[in-house]
Design goal:
By secondary structure, this protein is of the alpha/beta class. The protein is about 45% helix and about 15% strand. The chain has a domain of about 150 residues: P-loop containing nucleotide triphosphate hydrolases (Rossmann fold, 3-Layer(aba) Sandwich), CATH 3.40.50.300. The strands form 2 sheets. Strands 2-3-1-4-8 form a 5-stranded parallel sheet. A 3-stranded antiparallel sheet has the order 6-5-7. Bound molecules: adenosine monophosphate.
Length: about 220
């Protein structure tokens, strides 16, 4: 099963992807998580990406494509993958198409998660993330708090508010989304694999995606 998740920051792509990973044993590939771990490890890529990320801007396509170029050949993608946060520009989408065609892989579903600006602001400012780059579990102080405040349930590391989840950075990320990423909806909307669903709670969204994929594979 190969899925692309689209939608603004805070629409719940990460949570839906996590659910699909558990249910179907397919790999979640989040370019945001990959970049945050590169920043944390102080790599060349991390250093190049850090400023863009803090400002809520997109990292240049060339850096992202370098990460993704050979990613699908890795063993953990054998059963499929869910792309969470990639592609984010038309150029990335075109490049993805070329990469997958070269590997004779097809996408089973392109899912757009719909969410209003109000919902996004509320969700992102209440979000906390595990500070351990190898874990990065996501919590919400209202709807999914860790059992012990400020401590990750999964690995015991402190949970933190990300630098790019301040109200100013969020506003910038939403503006960037509207300018660069929202046009992807038009790019994909005539694709038979395209589906747009309101992002309410993750379970019905994951059910709907699984239903669409099984219907299409019949
Ligand atoms: P995310 O966790 O997906 O919201 O990503 C966090 C940040 O990483 C974004 O605000 C961008 O600065 C950067 N980023 C992640 N994925 C991409 C991508 N596909 N293209 C460009 N920048 C990205």
């Amino acid at each position: 099963m190969r899925i692309i998740l689209l939608g603004p920051p805070g629409a719940g792509k990460g949570t839906v992807a996590e659910l699909l990973t558990v249910r179907h044993g397919i790999k979640q590939i989040s370019t945001g998580d990959i970049l945050r771990s590169e920043v944390k490890n102080g790599t060349e890529l991390g250093t190049a990406a850090e400023g863009y990320m803090r400002r809520g801007e997109l990292v240049p396509d060339s850096l992202i494509l370098k990460i993704m170029e050979n990613r699908f050949l890795e063993e953990d993608c054998r059963k499929g993958f869910i792309l969470d946060g990639f592609p984010r520009t038309i150029l990335q989408a075109q490049s993805l198409k070329t990469i997958l065609a070269g590997l004779s892989m097809k996408i089973d579903a392109v899912v757009n998660l719909e969410a209003s600006d109000d919902l996004i602001l509320r969700r992102l400012t209440s979000r906390r993330t595990c500070s351990n780059p190898g874990c990065q579990a996501i919590y919400n102080i209202y709807t999914k708090p860790p059992k012990v405040e400020g401590i990750c349930d999964r690995c015991g590391s402190p949970t933190i508010q990300r630098d790019d989840e301040t109200p100013e950075a969020i506003r910038q990320r939403l503006a960037t989304y509207q300018e660069k990423t929202a046009p992807l909806i038009d790019y994909y909307k005539n694709d038979p694999a395209f589906l747009s669903i309101p992002s309410l709670t993750p379970e019905p969204v994951a059910d709907e995606i699984a239903r669409l994929v099984s219907e299409r594979s019949r």
